[in-house]
Amino acid sequence: MAKKVVAKLKTGKEGHGITKIVKMVRSPKTGAYIFKEKIVDAQKAKEELKKLGN
Q1: Least CB-packed of 2, 9, 28, 52 within 10 Å?
Q2: Which residues contact 45 (CB under 8 A, 6 or more apart)?
């Protein structure tokens, strides 16, 4: 079962609203788990989380 982690990043005024997405996905080749990471805008986090799973 894969886990998903969403952490909010904030560094001053410009960092507000940025989210780092980390998703654990099973590799189709080896069967081992790999981690996909991406930093996105907070409003688009759910959409990007769906894209990372594919």
Answers
A1: 28
A2: 6, 19, 21
Are 50 and 25 in contact by the 8 Å Cβ rule? The answer is: no
| Phi/psi at 10 (5° precision) | -145, 115
pLDDT digits (tens, 9 = 90+) for 26-39: 888 999 998 888 88
Q: Which tokens belong to 6?
A: 């969403």
Per-residue 3-state assignment (H helix, E strand, C coil) for the chain: CCCEEEEEECCCCCCCCEEEEEEEEECCCCCCEEEEEEEEEHHHHHHHHHHHCC
Q: Angle 11-40-20 (CA atoms, 0-180°, nearest 5)? A: 65
